[in-house]
Amino acid sequence: MGTRALEYDYTVSKWFLITTIILGIVGLLIGVIIALEMAYPELNNLFGEYGTFGRLKVLHTNTIIYGFVLSGVFSSWYYIAQHVLKVSLHESPFLQIMAKVHYFTYLLVIVLALISLLLGISTSKEYSEFEWPIDIFVVIFWLSWGIGISGLIGIRREKSLYISIWYFMATFLVVTALYLFNNMSIPTYFITGTGAWYHSVSVYAGSNDAMIQWWFGNNMVEFILTIPIIAMIYYFLPKEAGQAVYSYKLSLLSFWTLIFVYFLAGGHNLIYSTVPDWVQTVGSLFSIVLILPSWGNAINMLLTMKGEWQQLQTNQLIKFMVMASTFYMFSTLEGSIQAIKSVNALAHFTDWIPGHVHNGALGWDGFMIIAAAFHMAPRIFKREIYSKKLMNIQFWTQTVGIVLYFSSMWIAGITQGMMWRATDQYGNLAHSFIDTVIMIHPYFVIRSIGGVLYLVGFLFFTYNFYKTITLGRRLEYYELKNTSPMATI
Amino acid sequence: MTDKLIMSAVMLAIVIFSIVYAVADQYIGDDTVNILSIIAAGTIVGFTAIIIIQYLNQIKNDHATGELIENNWDGIGEYKNELPFGWAISFVLTLIFTIWYFLSGYPLNAFSQIGQYNEEVNIHNAKFETTFENADEETLNDMGESIFLVQCTPCHGITGDGIDAKAADFRTWGTEKGIINSIVNGSRGLGYAMNEMPAGLLGVNDAKAVASYIMAKISDYGKTSNPELIEQGKDLYATCAVCHGDDGKGMYGTSADLTKYGTSAFVIDVLQSGKKGFIGTMPTYRVEDHIMTPIQQKAVGTFILSLSK
Amino acid sequence: MFNWLEKHPLFLGIVIFLFVSFAWIVTILPNFAEMARPTVGTKPYTVLELAGRGVYIKDSCNACHSQMIRPFKSETDRYGIYSLSGEYAYDRPSLWGSKRTGPDLLRVGNYRTTDWHENHMLNPTSVVTGSIMPKYPHMFKNLADIDTAWAEAETVRKVFSVPYNEPLIQKDGTYQSVKLASTIEEAKADALAEAKLVASDMKTKSVIDAIERGEIPEIVALIAYMNSLK
Questions:
Q1: pTM of the prediction?
Q2: B255-280 per-position pLDDT tens digit
Q3: pLDDT at B123 over 90
Q4: What is the 3-state secondary structure (H, E, C) of B90-136?
Q5: Distance, CA of A323 to CA of A326 (rounded, Å)
Q6: Cα–Cα distance between B222 and B219 in angstroms, integer?
């Protein structure tokens, strides 16, 4: 390791960080709007065709996954990689340019996505709705990230790759394959010379297409919403707490089993559909096997904090990360058990599934990215965090929001599922479909409240962040070298 | 403060699960899927809570030990600690379960969801179709009402009044008054080869007489509220016989079979053919399409006719 | 071994990739051909139906409605016979959906009619009390994209040999073929003729007027698509 302290280049990390926050607000706001639309459908027609649930739901999922989360992942990469590879972007003008190409192409995709999705230009494939022209730009920014990854690894000083790097590498490699395969489509204009130039038709059809869609969808959830977030917690938690990771063996075994098993669990999105029974069985079984690798990483992080209870109480960041680990465990157990065929027979198509989604998205992804932002901000902007008290208020507001969200969706989903199956004493269906819709209205209202709370907490966060970078006490060099500037507040 | 935190988390988990159970309880019945789902929900919340509490306990009361590996990354070290025992055992157990499941429990190709479905239908048929094969009027009426509430109310209304003439009004349709309506207003859209019955073939008073003749003498219903008009109706019936036949049976299916009128069989005819009504189209509820069974159709017929009584 | 891999990122990357590839090779490839085979009676979509499918996708109907009937008696009682893989052979992409905020639509053509859809899309609560579905008045004004629909049909015919203009055996043993015009002008005329049939059951004046003018509003195409779902 060099004796001269490295001057890291946080430019692009900073840009991505600010983008994360802005897109987080946009994504959460749209989420609140569509939650309210489900409770109060008159809201759907306030902005003509552009404000209807169908248009906004697609915008919501894309803004959160590819906007909020992915931006946070990229920001963290450009921060963490320099630290654990012991190399600065300043040392390679080429990589600095690559990082900027990455950022600006990414931004272009976000803008194009916003416009096209509002217009209803969509392939209909979940989390893969962009038509082919935008897909091309996605490939460009993704590959520029890949070049950045390999370049930085190539010029690294620290020869042995830290856990976080394995996870980032896996994210890059796997998503490349997933995105390319799932989006394979033929632009119809070039074959016929007629129709919309941006329209394409999927090369896959029917059940095969569904298999590919869910092989993609399930693994996007893994490789964008889990794997890189694990990369982040493996850096930010031990670093913030000043503790060593509990067990190298556990991290190693969890990594390899996680990436291997997750792919086999993909069939669990297609249970009782027309894909072959054996594919469904494989998906169901391996979802159970998946519980332990997922929990392995969370447990590793909790055990890293052994004996550090007082840090959990005084350091707000640690609170966020420990709660994130808790929701990660909760969500992964929930998903695996929902994949058991008999449970799935009830749960599939109900609101129990969005309940599961948001446990992970709000609890695990949201909290981790917020924690990452709070860790990076003081070091990037060289300012002390503005208000620890506000962090605490934010934490509790958002936690209550998540609890309201998932409990209302559990009640709605389970009841809905049971009502769909219910028969009277003559063996005839006991409830019409609309009966079930009317029944769950109150839970849609509660869910909206949960969402509003989470958004409000996020706005506290934004305010805190803004005040930090404009008004926070400037940090001295020696303070930055400490484990955490949190300790000084 | 910290124990309070753990206690409140446990209480919260119990409260949430209890609310879920309380709301869902009325629908559980003896459906194994429902029971398993409730158990699943409880397991998810309970198991997570138990494990998390154990680890929070370790955070609180234990301390970090172990031998560090030589390397560290930006100050982050790693211990050489062993895998947590409980975790490792659980993992091995899930793997053993998986191997067992593949090899002897449910070998990959032995389970068939269609087979499971066929079994479900057979069990249902054995239980219900034979039970209600010779159901009495009251049972048919009840059964019909529950089907009606799910399938028919969207257009015919909860009381079967046809929601402001959107659909047939069962307070009169299928009764003697219904015949008068059809004669005066015509009838269309049942898909008969003879096409539509035109409106105004007879005046209202004549229609009344014909209606009583048809109800009393032609249809299986066999009764009329105006027996004094039967003779007059019989003479006027010639107008109807042109399409419906002298026996009223419908000229080999080319027009409506009036002998069924006033019984559930007439309703079943409509269920099988659908009807393009005056303002909309009623879909079919055919046995061949697996939408209703013959007993269910009979039940619906019984119930609908009861609405006019 | 792992220590070595951690110092050699290229090989680490390759091993990661191989690890994940195992699953998709083992699960997706084996039944690929079999699942693609259409069942008897499955027909490709007409241009008008495809345009309607385009409207369905544009407004994300699949976000709330599924098109997959699972083999449970409670499902088949409610929606019709369970789905078969081959029924979706010409669905590009498949619209199975993952959520039922509203009911499954796979066989909606069997129990809902043109005029019901007309009322429902304009104002859902007028035919379903308590519905939370949005109103879609814009579908009555916007025109369906017939050009793109024909382009898509031509593309799948050329590239994937989807059997347009070929006699296909139906469940009752007869043969039917779905016509696909070879020029866009002819296709538009065919679509208009089909649209006229659909619109003859409709009552909204603006729609009827549009059809008279030779224009096809989105709602007519959408209804044609919905009616084809049997």
A1: 0.90
A2: 888 888 888 888 898 888 888 776 66
A3: no
A4: HHHHHHHHHHHHHHHHCCCCCCCHHHHHHHHHHHHHHHHHHHCCCCC
A5: 5
A6: 6
CA distance A25 to A33: 12
From the list A218, A214, A227, the residue with the least C-alpha distance to A69 is A227
Q: Could you read off the pLDDT of C102-112 as tens digits, one per residue?
A: 999 999 998 88
Closest-CA residue of B relative to C126 is: B154
- Is C22 in the same domain as C105? no
CATH number, domain of A44, equals 1.20.210.10
Neighbours of chain B (3+ CB pairs under 8 A): A, C
Q: Average of pLDDT values for C117-129?
A: 92
Q: What secondary structure, in 3-state letters, does chain A show?
A: CCCCCCCCCCHHHHHHHHHHHHHHHHHHHHHHHHHHHHHCHHHHHCCHHHHCHHHHHHHHHHHHHHHHHHHHHHHHHHHHHHHHHCCCHHHCHHHHHHHHHHHHHHHHHHHHHHHHHHHCCCCCCCCCCCCHHHHHHHHHHHHHHHHHHHHHHHCCCCCCCCHHHHHHHHHHHHHHHHHHHHCCEEEHHHHHCCCCCCCEEECCCHHHHHHHHHHHHHHHHHHHHCHHHHHHHHHHHHHHHCCCECEHHHHHHHHHHHHHHHHHHHHHHCCCCCCCHHHHHHHHHHHHHHHHHHHHHHHHHHHHCCCCHHHHHHCHHHHHHHHHHHHHHHHHHHHHHHCCHHHHHHHCECCHHHHHHHHHHHHHHHHHHHHHHHHHHHHHHCECCCCHHHHHHHHHHHHHHHHHHHHHHHHHHHHHHHHHHCECCCCCECCCHHHHHHHCHHHHHHHHHHHHHHHHHHHHHHHHHHHHHHHCCECCHHHHHCCCHHHHC
Q: What is the pLDDT of residue C147?
A: 96
- Crossing angle of the two packed helices A388-421 and A367-381, in degrees rounded to 10: 160
Contact B281, C110 (CB under 8 A): no
Digit-coded pLDDT (tens) for B167-186:
788 888 878 888 888 888 88
Question: In this predicted model, what pLDDT tens digit does every residue of A125-144 receive, in sequence order?
Answer: 999 999 999 999 999 999 99
In-domain check, residue C66: yes
Sign of CA dihedral C72, A277, A126, B34: positive
In this structure, what token pair is assigned to residue A191? Answer: 């074959």
Residues of C in contact with A279 (CB under 8 A): 27, 31
Q: What is the ipTM of this complex?
A: 0.93
Chain A residue whose CA is closest to C149: A195
Q: Which domain holds residue C6?
A: 2-30
Residue C36 lies in a domain: no
Q: Map residue C82 onto helix, strand or coil.
A: coil
Q: DSSP letter for B284, please.
A: P
Mind telling me how many Å the CA of C187 is from chain A's nearest CA?
Answer: 12
pLDDT of residue B174: 79
For the cut 90, the answer to whether the pLDDT of residue A454 exceeds it is: yes
pLDDT at B266: 87
Nearest residue in chain A measured CA to CA from B48: A330
Q: Is B161 helix (H, G, I), strand (E, B) or coil?
A: coil
Using CB atoms, which residue from C85, C92, C128 is nearest to A207?
C85
* Yes or no, beta carbons of C59 and A52 under 8 Å apart: yes
Look at B82 and A329 and tell me if their CB atoms are within 8 Å.
no
- State whether C170 and C86 are in the same domain: yes
Total domains in the fold of chain A: 2
Coil vs helix vs strand at B137: helix
A220 located within any domain: no
Cβ neighbours around A354 below 10 Å, total: 20
What is the C-alpha to C-alpha distance for residues A121 and A152, in angstroms, rounded to an integer?
37
Same domain, A271 and A400: yes
Rounded CA gap, A200 and A191, in Å? Answer: 10
